[in-house]
Amino acid sequence: MRPDDWYCTQDLTGFLSHAGGFLRSRPDLHTVALTVTETLRRSGLRAYSDEAPVFGVLELDGQVRAAYFRTPPFRLNVTPLTPEEAESLAAHLVALGHSVPGVIAARETAEAFTAAWRRQSGARATVIQRQRLYRLGNLTAPQPLPPGRPRVAGKEDREQLVRWYGEFVEAVGDHVARDAAAWADSRISYGGVTFWESEDGTPLAMAGVTPLVAGQVRVAPVYTPAHLRGRGYAGAATAQVSRAVLASGVREVLLFTDLANRTSNSLYQRIGYRAVADFAAYDFRGSRTF
């Protein structure tokens, strides 16, 4: 396999025309690529960063085998690769003179690409987070539910959403965050965040959902302020948005968890989420300048 079996483009329309069918063939494993490219399509190429994103496709014998995207300055996101494909991708990016600050992918792919990038660029790698992708099976609401009720966030909640999204990004160290105001406006536009609120209407936790793409919706983000955690609010909000997605006819409901957070992993399994695959995120340091 050769590095020039890959090609790179900044043309989102062309990328989706070429690789869209491949991405939709596994909407679970490709959920991030699907939702990010849909956001870029709807909101413009600067939705995540002032720099234009880049996209890449591996094609062999007329068939798309893999794809990647990156919204600078954030990490490279890659669909599952064989070790040989990972090596060819690293060589392809080096040949193009691309710097890569990190990678996030299914665990085996992330490990293979990290090793290949080290050989190609001399970079040192640090694992930043290990994640697990879950799919909803039979939803079971947590019992007992905490006091309160669900409510879909509206325009009047914009300031609250902006503040909580900023706190969420800071808490998880998210490297692919959108501008908080743009994120809030986007979610409000399609009812994409549900609060669990107290009887007097005070928001206690939130659970969001991504737009429907390729028959899948991902629950994200889920956030409870630190002083309100441990009371079941996030679980109640997550169960509510999951139920609402199912009621809309969607059957592929996904979410990611941080494997270091045993509480959230246990919670999501109790309400019906089942493991699909493990992912890993690495940061790179010390790459040679190309």
Automatic annotation (TrEMBL):
Sorted UniProt keywords: Transferase
SUPFAM superfamilies per the UniProt record, alphabetical: Acyl-CoA N-acyltransferases (Nat)
Coiled-coil region(s): none
Domain N-acetyltransferase: residue ranges: 148-290
Domain of life: Bacteria
InterPro entries assigned: Acyl_CoA_acyltransferase, GCN5-like_dom, GNAT_dom
PROSITE patterns the record matches: GNAT (PS51186)
Record GO terms (molecular function): acyltransferase activity, transferring groups other than amino-acyl groups
Name of the protein this chain belongs to: Acetyltransferase
Tagged with keyword Transferase: yes
